[in-house]
Design goal:
With 298 residues, this protein is mainly α. The chain is built from 13 helices and no strands. The longest helix is centred in the first third of the chain and has 34 residues. The chain is globular.
Length: 298
């Protein structure tokens, strides 16, 4: 008969827990909360060249954003690119994630995981530079199209929305594959075989058996890719060019080039609030189809 281990004096008591948590709480406040509060104060400033802080509070920076069609267009473009790229990452990431999760060879699985993770070891700017070489007017793609006779003049691939979409997907796809693979690997294979054995077509088995159990991974991967897309900086800046603007480069331009900290801070808060609202909304919508959440709620 086993006996439970008595921790005795090692068990944390009343006043000990706050003392143990206080260093981490102070660190979070200093590194996260304080900069946000300071940035929020900047967003309520009037823009006075050469000054960071001025007396009085104003919401004119937010009113300027929501009344200017140019910046509203940047916001909607950012949301559209983020939603579309996240959906494509989910569609493109399922097949490799499923194959890696179901492969039986441990060596092959490790090799495939390394291939997926390897791009994450390089910075976004390095990967974007690779797309500049591929999609440039004298890049690999245009050289190939010219060589096979499909075109005589270079095709405009860079500095377009499609190029930005390709770049963002290439950056975010490994995160989606890793997230889905870890969840699919935890789903017992006999459940799929049972669905197929009972006469369900592969598509129906996927929709009614595999997909509901994959929902935690779908939610996590979708949220992660959407947040990364909304805050993408290097990809739209280098591939999109000055004509195709998104929110993160616009924030950087206002703060560093225009030296307009109040309006740049307002743009940053609009971006953060939009990302937070859409992330919570998407998580709620996807969570409605998660059977595990339904069971825990009931």
């Amino acid at each position: 008969m086993s006996r439970s281990l008595d921790l005795g004096p090692l068990r944390p008591r009343g006043a000990a827990a706050p003392l143990l948590l206080s260093p981490s709480i102070v660190l979070v406040v200093i590194l996260l909360a304080f900069p946000l509060v300071l940035l929020g104060r900047y967003s309520l400033n009037r823009f006075v060249p050469g000054k960071f802080m001025v007396d009085g509070l104003t919401i004119e920076n937010f009113l300027r954003f929501f009344s200017d069609p140019f910046y509203l267009d940047i916001l909607w473009r950012t949301i559209g690119i983020s939603l579309f790229s996240t959906a494509l990452c989910l569609v493109l990431g399922f097949a490799p994630a499923y194959y890696i999760a179901r492969v039986t060879s441990a060596r092959l699985k490790s090799f495939l995981l390394i291939c997926v993770i390897l791009p994450l070891l390089m910075g976004n700017a390095v990967r974007v530079a690779g797309w500049l070489v591929l999609l440039g007017d004298r890049g690999v793609v245009n050289a190939f199209l010219t060589a096979i006779g499909l075109t005589h003049d270079p095709v405009q691939l860079l500095y377009t929305g499609k190029a930005v979409l390709i770049g963002i997907i290439s950056v975010n796809l490994p995160f989606m594959i890793i997230t889905l693979q870890s969840v699919i690997e935890s789903i017992p294979r006999p459940l799929e075989e049972a669905g197929l054995g009972l006469g369900a077509a592969p598509a129906r088995m996927f929709l009614e058996v595999l997909l509901p159990m994959m929902m935690p991974g779908v939610i996590a991967g979708t949220v992660l890719c959407f947040i990364l897309s909304m805050n993408a900086y290097a990809t739209p800046l280098l591939i999109g060019g000055p004509k195709f603007q998104m929110m993160a480069p616009a924030v950087y331009e206002q703060i560093t080039r225009a030296n307009n900290w109040p309006f740049g801070a307002a743009l940053a808060f609009v971006l953060m609030a939009t990302t937070l609202v859409l992330t919570v909304l998407s998580s709620w919508l996807l969570g409605r189809h998660d059977p595990q959440r339904k069971e825990s709620a009931s």
